[in-house]
């Protein structure tokens, strides 16, 4: 449990730093990392929200490979339930 708290704290801290520095690509990349991590812990609503935010940013900055990755994760349900599939990411 303690290690999980540290991981989340570090990822959230990185998001705050990238927001402050106005580095949208790196913010989105960190959001996607945290979204995958959250999905692996069953926190699907939070995971999906972060994944969608990351995908929007990747689209805005023209990061096609990362946008494709984020969309794949969202479409396969690895960032939370899609429709009634309800699948989750692997840990």
Overview of this structure, please?
The chain is mostly helical and 91 residues long. The chain has helices at 2-20, 24-40, 44-61, 64-76. Helix content is 74%, strand content 0%. Helix 1 packs antiparallel against helix 2 (24-40) and helix 3 runs antiparallel to helix 4 (64-76).
Structural class: mainly alpha
Largest sheet: none
Mean pLDDT across all amino acids: 86
Radius of gyration: 13 Å
In terms of per-residue confidence, which ranges show pLDDT below 50 for 5 or more consecutive residues?
82-91
Number of strands: 0
Query: What distance lies between the first and last C-alpha atoms, to the nearest angstrom?
Result: 14 Å
Would you list the SSEs in sequence order as H and E? HHHH
Helix content: over 70%
- Total helices: the number is 4
Hey, roughly how much beta strand do the residues contain?
under 5%
Shape, per Cα inertia axes: flat
Entry summary:
This protein has 91 residues and is mainly α. Helices cover 74% and strands 0% of the residues. Helix 1 (2-20) runs antiparallel to helix 2 (24-40), helix 2 (24-40) packs antiparallel against helix 3 (44-61) and helix 3 (44-61) runs antiparallel to helix 4.
Please give the structural blueprint.
Blueprint: H1 2-20, H2 24-40, H3 44-61, H4 64-76
């Amino acid at each position: 449990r303690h290690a999980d708290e540290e991981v989340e704290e570090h990822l959230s801290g990185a998001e705050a730093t990238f927001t402050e520095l106005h580095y949208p690509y790196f913010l989105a990349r960190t959001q996607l990392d945290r979204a995958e991590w959250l999905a692996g812990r069953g926190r699907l609503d939070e995971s999906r929200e972060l994944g969608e935010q990351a995908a929007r940013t990747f689209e805005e900055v023209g990061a096609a490979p990362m946008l494709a990755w984020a969309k794949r994760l969202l479409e396969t349900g690895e960032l939370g339930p899609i429709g009634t599939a309800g699948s989750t990411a692997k840990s």
